[in-house]
Design the sequence.
């Protein structure tokens, strides 16, 4: 029996337009009956998914983490399983789930029908896969234009991060766990659901996307240059052992700041402080490699 799939390709993703025809051909060869749509704006994904929810068995998304973030709320509402074809710059969710960047291999994983139920993060009504954060990461997001990502690829994250770090200034925040407040001066607060974010950095070296908890870290430095020694460790999620980094693992978190600060979820600015965070266990089914 053929599986009916809604295929959504972000043609603005780094490889989206170039790989579109290949993705359609590959999936049809694997036996999928496709409804394909290529929305011009990521905000249209929610409407497209809900409109087709009773016509298909699954949703396949070709794009990066921003595209997936735009679709996540509709996927939760419809409970359609998700197939991922990594076509973005960073592809952090695919990295967490060990889905390869090879388009044919990613398509075969979906066809193999091996699903894993993963947790999602939630902040102020918005679901996220990887990380929600405020501080340095927001400024990086604001500087990371499509043109920069297309030109430099994954290197764009490192180049932009270095520019932002040089101008970083600490801000005051209140982090509350179980109604117990902690006052911090920080340059970055990140709340992770999965392991990878920001082009391959790890929230925590051993975090998983189905451990039913959120992992918070706060970088509490006084001078910008103190973050430089942390950068190599952040690639592997081992910055948590630094004296300048506060870490918390829990299921619910509240963050307040003196004035509203933007929060990005999976690399897209979607809400502001004050922010309520929680983990939503086993919220979504995703096609993954066998034995994952």
Sequence:
């Amino acid at each position: 029996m053929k599986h009916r799939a809604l295929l959504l390709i972000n043609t603005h993703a780094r490889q989206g337009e170039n790989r579109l025809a290949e993705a359609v051909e590959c999936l049809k060869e694997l036996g999928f009956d496709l409804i394909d749509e290529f929305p011009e704006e990521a905000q249209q994904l929610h409407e497209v998914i809900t409109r087709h929810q009773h016509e298909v068995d699954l949703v396949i998304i070709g794009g990066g983490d921003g595209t997936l973030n735009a679709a996540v709320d509709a996927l939760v509402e419809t409970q359609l399983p998700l197939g991922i074809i990594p076509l973005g710059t960073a592809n952090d969710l695919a990295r967490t789930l060990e889905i390869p960047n090879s388009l044919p291999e990613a398509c075969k994983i979906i066809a193999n029908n091996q699903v894993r139920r993963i947790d999602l993060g939630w902040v102020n009504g918005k679901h996220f896969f990887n990380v929600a954060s405020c501080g340095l990461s927001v400024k990086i997001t604001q500087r990371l234009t499509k043109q920069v990502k297309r030109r430099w690829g994954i290197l764009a994250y490192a180049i932009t991060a270095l520019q932002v770090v040089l101008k970083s200034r600490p801000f005051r925040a209140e982090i509350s766990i179980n109604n117990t407040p902690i006052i911090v001066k920080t340059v970055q607060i990140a709340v992770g659901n999965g392991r990878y974010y920001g082009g391959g950095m790890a929230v925590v070296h051993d975090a998983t996307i189905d451990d039913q908890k959120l992992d918070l870290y706060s970088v509490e430095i006084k001078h910008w240059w103190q973050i430089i020694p942390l950068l190599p460790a952040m690639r592997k999620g081992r910055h948590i052992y630094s004296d300048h980094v506060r870490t918390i693992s829990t299921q619910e978190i509240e963050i307040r700041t003196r004035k509203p600060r933007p929060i990005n979820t999976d690399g897209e600015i979607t809400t502001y402080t004050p922010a309520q965070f929680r983990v939503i266990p086993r919220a979504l089914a995703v096609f993954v490699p066998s034995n994952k």
In short: The radius of gyration is 19 Å. The chain has a mean pLDDT of 89. DSSP finds nine helices and 18 strands in the chain.
